């Protein structure tokens, strides 16, 4: 009858976009029909999500391992929101969900520091439908509270929009045209950027962006730096589990978050002497304006402000970022990096 | 000057040091040369309730005074205090008494001015003013007559001062006057004449723009305070300053006599102000207009902020308009300390223009705190109106009403009756039938008043509370908005509490708002902190409590144990230990006494405490001699009520889940199904906070069985709502209780539930620990159903880790046990598990079959949620093959409303599975 268990985190399973173990997503009904019938009226719904934070994953918390990876939280939330949108809000599968805006906040840094012991994350998610047409929402407002090992320590928010297939296609086509028309910056092809090749000296070292594995580096060395601004190319390793787009698809969401973090780190380290291994992204706000095509070059422009000190004297650097393809801006973001010391 | 009243009352060579003899002296002085009856003197010195020894004491004071007057023996007798029936007479020579000197100089000065001899007028008036050494009749307690005398004298002084200023302006002394006038205008922001003089002085010294600014400030003050524009005289003056009218310039007086033809060019003009109209210029003027009686209303408290809506409502009521008649009686009610009097005063000042004959404030509570009788109230009003203190108190209500009516006849006045206790008390006052209006304040809403409009005051809005704190607390408050908001919250946005808090801060220059907020945090000491100077919040809050009878007081104390912010009838009944009807009666009494708040959500009435009253009630309860015992008994009663109700709701929510019934804990007197109603989920949602708090309380009181019974009855709800924090907290407490009580079965049941919690949260290791421990114990006590349920739990975990074989084995075994034991819920769970296993193995038809079995068992159980879930799952299974993969392909609904997302690879190795 006795069973001994030796918990071992698994390598990422295929088709699950890089998760270690499956998650439980629970619907929290407040109405009788929600309780009995799991009915799905287009009103605000609450969910609880629970997952173990990955301790050895090829992408999530790859790196010096000082902090839990915000990327995992963002990805989990994104996946759960997608699922709920189609399952509970009955958004038809053929309507792609696109993020209009996204935000993350770390409210209490202590639980994010890794202790070597397994850590458990819970997300309290509230999803509110926006612009309901014929009982199906055209958009979703998502808010989540993050708790690690029972301690509330962060919050996340996002706004999604569900486009009609027609609209989606024409948007993408128009965007692509615009990007192709305008002059693209001088960029060397992606293949030459990877560290696996010859030009190791010119690529960005993983340690400088808080990673260990070079495959998890998504930014390249700055192309030029006018007036303290950095312009960096953004590209991901082909075949990357998390960052790669589906073929012919658009740039996936995680890329923007990770690129924001890495670009900010580079700039902050260069200009203000931040140590990447101990710098944590504590705030991220992004607004998405258009789709990025995965096969067109993507650049990120990052500008930093002078560091400010918080109540305990720790420096934090605010950065402003803009992602563009050609002259078309896809995403604008602001971020705050806190040096934990 | 031997006798002085224009300033601190003094008598040289030796002023009596005690206040009352001085007051006696003052009363006699202001009526020097007249006989003052003994009754008036007693009234003046001791008010409406003189001690029995008053007459004797008075005689003592009289002899004291006589000694002083005769005293030094030098310089002859300057004054004599004679006994003349029915009282006393004080004679003083005019040279030795400042008041007649002042009056003489005043008259002479005025004559000189009228003759055009401004220099002499100015000199004389200066002399008159030089006699003053302070506020009239200061340094003594004022009764009614002294008060009115003081006011009259102060007004006289103002009049002389203004006359002197006009004279000086005529003499061209505008340069010197500017400074003095600026100070005066600052002191009296609503006095139009002063501002007029100031404007002229400024204009003549070349500061025309300053003059305009003065006008602006005056106008602003008038509009803000009284809601009126400056009078026509002032507006004319303003225009002339704007136009730089050359007639405003100073012209030296042509001659000592005769008029200056350019009358209109006099800077002082004739500002037609309201209130004290003084026309001090010109020979051509007619007799001076009769000054309006000074409004004897106290000024509104400084720093009155907020209450905009209530003030607007009151003003609208009093002014009427839009087809509505102005209301005659406005009744303001609310708990003690909520700011009724302040609001009434503010309203009175705002509507001063409606009541040209003045406004009066009558307090309806005696100095000992007891309400005045109706005849005393009537007498008080009569005294104020007529200055009549003759003789015996009026006991005949008819006569009282009659005299009141005569006194009020024809006058448009506003009466503010403060702290009314009942309609009976104020009847004579209302019946006097003035052409004005009455503002009534009182704690209980005085019902049965004809034509009355009611205004109920409650705690202010949080925004207004912050405003009040900032206004009263000054700079330091403004520096820490977060702390200010916290203080407002801890004070329950209650005006008196806010004022005391602000006072507590200003009295200690070294503390910060954050520190004050910290001190206020602890409920047990909060009322003690809110005590400063003469303001004591606790005392005010206690007034309502003290007036209530013993059963109501007991209820107030006990109901503070209510576990949530508000509660309904059954909670009250449980806490009070009575039937529901009786409890509801008592709570309604509490509401009437303003000790409890009530609101209705359309179906049931919910009662609640204002936060400060709850603190008070808790204090009182703990201070009772057997406080701990009472609390324990009440908590026990409440716990049993909750167990009964929650158990009933749980049985409706998840039938068959709780296989161990706690029959002995149920309270048969409670009509549980009626209280819970048709929606168990709704009931739990409303009562969840209270239930969790009750678990904490029963644990704190050591009532161990109740703790785990409560936790167990709520587990189904927590499970359905994934309320993880509450689930964990209550069950940890229950586990502790079970261990302390040594109840092994209870411990096992809690462990099993904790296993469920861990499993919901995907904490596999912890879940297994809990399930196996519980299973072990269940087997020890031969609880087959329990053991089978734990087996199912373990199987769930294994399934989640994709260990299909071990899971399937356990499900099968559990199914057999449950069928044998008649545990339908267990069967449902086991069959569901088997179906999921087969689904994972790819055996769809078997899965469908098992789901169908599961569905039948659920139907038998009467659990609609599971029945629907089975239907959904079956539909998905059968349709999946046909449809293209849905976005939920990666997700499986494993329980109603619970999804497993993402496929798993084996993460656990098993050794020696059973």
UniProtKB/TrEMBL annotation, chain B:
GO molecular function, one term: ADP binding
CDD domains, A to Z: BTAD (cd15831)
Pro residues composition bias: residue spans: 288-303
Gene Ontology biological process: phosphorelay signal transduction system; regulation of DNA-templated transcription
UniProt-listed Gene3D superfamilies: P-loop containing nucleotide triphosphate hydrolases, Tetratricopeptide repeat domain, Winged helix-like DNA-binding domain superfamily/Winged helix DNA-binding domain
InterPro entries, per database record: AAA+_ATPase, AfsR-DnrI-RedD_regulator, BTAD, NB-ARC, OmpR/PhoB-type_DNA-bd, P-loop_NTPase, Sig_transdc_resp-reg_C-effctor, TPR-like_helical_dom_sf
Pfam hit, one: Trans_reg_C
Keyword tags: DNA-binding, Transcription, Transcription regulation, Two-component regulatory system
Top-rank taxon, per record: Bacteria
Residue ranges flagged as DNA-binding region: 1-92
Domain OmpR/PhoB-type, first and last residues per copy: 1-92
The family this protein is said to belong to: Belongs to the AfsR/DnrI/RedD regulatory family.
Protein name in UniProt: SARP family transcriptional regulator
Organism this protein belongs to: Streptomyces lacrimifluminis
């Amino acid at each position: 009858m006795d069973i001994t268990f030796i918990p071992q985190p698994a390598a990422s399973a295929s088709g699950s976009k890089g998760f270690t173990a499956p998650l439980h997503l629970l619907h929290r009904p407040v109405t009788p029909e929600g309780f009995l019938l799991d009915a799905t009226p287009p009103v605000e719904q609450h969910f609880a999500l629970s997952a173990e934070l990955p301790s050895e994953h090829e992408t999530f918390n790859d790196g010096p391992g000082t902090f839990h990876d915000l990327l995992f939280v963002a990805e989990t939330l994104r996946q759960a929101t997608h699922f709920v949108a189609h399952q509970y809000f009955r958004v038809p599968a053929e309507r792609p969900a696109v993020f209009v805006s996204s935000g993350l906040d770390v409210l209490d840094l202590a639980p994010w520091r890794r202790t070597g012991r397994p850590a458990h994350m819970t997300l309290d998610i509230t999803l509110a439908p926006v612009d309901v047409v014929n009982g199906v929402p055209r958009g979703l407002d998502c808010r989540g509270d993050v708790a690690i090992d029972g301690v509330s320590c962060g919050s996340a928010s996002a706004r999604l929009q569900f486009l009609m297939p027609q609209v989606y296609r024409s948007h993408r086509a128009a965007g692509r045209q615009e990007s192709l028309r305008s002059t693209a910056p001088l960029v060397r092809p992606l293949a030459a950027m990877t560290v696996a090749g010859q030009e190791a000296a010119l690529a960005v070292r993983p340690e400088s962006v808080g990673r260990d594995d070079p495959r998890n580096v998504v930014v390249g060395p700055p192309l030029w730096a006018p007036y303290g601004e950095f312009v960096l190319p953004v590209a991901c390793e082909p075949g990357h589990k998390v960052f790669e787009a589906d073929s012919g698809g658009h740039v996936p969401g995680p890329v923007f978050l990770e690129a924001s973090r890495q670009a900010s780190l580079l700039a902050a380290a260069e200009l203000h002497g931040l140590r990447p291994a101990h710098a944590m992204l504590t705030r991220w706000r992004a607004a998405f304006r258009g789709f990025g095509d995965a096969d067109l070059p993507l650049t990120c422009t990052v500008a930093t402000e002078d560091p400010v000190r918080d109540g305990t004297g720790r420096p934090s650097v605010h950065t402003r970022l803009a992602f563009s393809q050609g002259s078309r801006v896809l995403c604008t973001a602001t971020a705050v990096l806190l040096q934990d010391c | 000057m031997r006798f002085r009243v224009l300033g601190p009352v003094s008598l040289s060579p030796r002023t009596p040091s005690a206040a009352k003899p001085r007051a006696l002296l003052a009363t006699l002085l202001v009526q020097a040369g007249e006989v003052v009856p003994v009754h008036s003197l007693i009234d003046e010195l001791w008010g409406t309730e003189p001690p029995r020894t008053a007459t004797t004491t008075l005689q003592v004071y009289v002899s004291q005074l006589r000694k002083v007057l005769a005293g030094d023996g030098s310089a002859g007798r300057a004054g004599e205090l004679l006994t003349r029936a029915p009282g006393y007479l004080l004679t003083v020579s005019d040279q030795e008494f400042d008041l007649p000197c002042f009056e003489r100089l005043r008259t002479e000065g005025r004559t000189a001015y009228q003759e055009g001899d401004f220099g002499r007028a100015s000199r004389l008036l200066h002399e008159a003013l030089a006699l003053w050494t302070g506020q009239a009749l200061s340094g003594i307690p004022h009764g009614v007559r002294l008060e009115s005398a003081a006011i009259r004298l102060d007004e006289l002084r103002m009049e002389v001062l203004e006359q002197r200023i006009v004279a000086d302006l005529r003499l061209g002394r505008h340069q010197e006057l500017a400074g003095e006038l600026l100070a005066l205008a600052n002191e009296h922001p609503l006095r139009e004449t002063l501002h007029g003089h100031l404007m002229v002085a400024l204009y003549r010294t070349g500061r025309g723009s300053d003059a305009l600014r003065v006008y602006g400030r005056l106008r602003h003050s008038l509009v803000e305070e009284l809601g009126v524009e400056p009078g026509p005289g002032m507006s004319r003056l303003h225009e002339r300053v704007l136009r730089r009218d050359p007639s405003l310039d100073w012209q030296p007086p042509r001659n000592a006599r005769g008029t200056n033809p350019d009358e209109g060019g006099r800077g002082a003009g004739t500002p037609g102000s309201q209130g004290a109209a003084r026309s001090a210029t010109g020979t051509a003027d007619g007799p001076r207009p009769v000054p309006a009686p000074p409004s004897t209303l106290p000024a509104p408290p400084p720093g009155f902020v907020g209450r905009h809506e209530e003030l607007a409502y009151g003003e609208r009521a009093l002014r009427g308009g839009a087809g509505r008649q102005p209301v005659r009686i406005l009744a303001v009610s609310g708990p003690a300390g909520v700011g009724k009097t302040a609001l009434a005063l503010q309203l009175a000042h705002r509507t001063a223009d409606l009541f040209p004959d003045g406004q009066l404030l009558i307090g309806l509570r005696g100095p000992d705190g007891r309400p005045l009788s109706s005849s005393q109230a009537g007498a008080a009003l009569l005294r104020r109106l007529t200055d009549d203190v003759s003789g015996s108190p009026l006991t005949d209500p008819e006569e009282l009403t009659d005299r009141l009516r005569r006194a009020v006849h024809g006058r448009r006045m506003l009466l503010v009756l403060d702290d009314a206790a009942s309609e009976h008390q104020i009847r004579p006052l209302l019946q006097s039938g003035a052409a004005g209006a009455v503002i009534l304040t009182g704690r209980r809403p005085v019902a049965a008043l004809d034509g009355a409009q009611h205004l109920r005051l409650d705690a202010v809005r949080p925004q207004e509370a912050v405003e009040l704190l900032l206004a009263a607390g000054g700079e330091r408050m403004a520096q820490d908005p977060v702390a200010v908001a916290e203080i407002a919250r801890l004070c329950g946005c209650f005006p008196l509490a806010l004022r005391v808090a602000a006072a507590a801060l200003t009295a200690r220059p070294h503390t910060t708002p954050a520190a004050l907020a910290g001190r206020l945090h602890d409920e047990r000491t909060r009322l003690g902190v809110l005590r400063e100077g003469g303001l004591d919040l606790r005392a005010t809050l206690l007034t309502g409590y003290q007036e209530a009878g013993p059963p109501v007081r007991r209820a107030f104390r006990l109901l503070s144990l209510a576990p949530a912010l508000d509660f309904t009838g059954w909670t009250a009944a449980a806490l009070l230990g009575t039937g529901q009807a009786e409890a509801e009666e008592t709570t309604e009494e509490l509401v009437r006494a303003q000790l409890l708040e009530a609101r209705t959500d359309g179906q049931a009435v919910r009662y609640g405490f204002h936060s400060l009253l709850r603190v008070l009630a808790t204090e009182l309860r703990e201070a009772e001699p057997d406080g701990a015992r009472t609390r324990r008994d009440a908590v026990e009663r409440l716990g049993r009520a909750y167990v009964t109700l929650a158990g009933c709701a749980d049985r409706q929510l998840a039938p068959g889940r709780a296989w161990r019934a706690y029959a002995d804990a149920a309270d048969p007197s409670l009509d549980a199904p009626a209280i819970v109603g048709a929606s168990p989920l709704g009931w739990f949602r409303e009562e969840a906070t209270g239930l969790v708090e009750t678990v904490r309380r029963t644990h704190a009181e050591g009532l161990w069985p109740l703790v785990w019974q409560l936790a167990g009855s709520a587990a189904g709800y927590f499970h359905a709502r994934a309320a993880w924090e509450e689930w964990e907290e209550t069950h940890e407490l229950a586990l502790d209780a079970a261990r302390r009580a040594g109840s092994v079965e209870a411990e096992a049941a809690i462990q099993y539930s904790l296993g469920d919690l861990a499993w919901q949260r995907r904490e596999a290791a912890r879940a297994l620990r809990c399930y196996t421990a519980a299973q072990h114990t269940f087997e020890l006590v031969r609880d087959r159903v329990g053991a089978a349920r734990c087996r199912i739990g373990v199987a769930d975990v294994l399934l989640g880790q994709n260990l299909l074989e071990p899971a399937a084995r356990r499900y099968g075994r559990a199914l057999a046990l449950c069928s044998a034991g008649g545990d339908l819920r267990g069967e449902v769970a086991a069959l569901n598990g088997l179906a999921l296993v087969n689904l994972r193995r790819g055996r769809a038809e078997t899965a469908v079959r098992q789901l169908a079995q599961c569905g039948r068992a659920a139907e038998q159980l009467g659990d609609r949620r599971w029945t629907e879930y089975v239907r959904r799952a079956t539909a998905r299974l059968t349709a999946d093959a046909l449809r293209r993969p849905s976005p939920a392909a990666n997700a499986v609904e494993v329980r109603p409303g619970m999804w497993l997302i993402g496929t798993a690879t084996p993460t656990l190795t098993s050794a020696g599975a059973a």
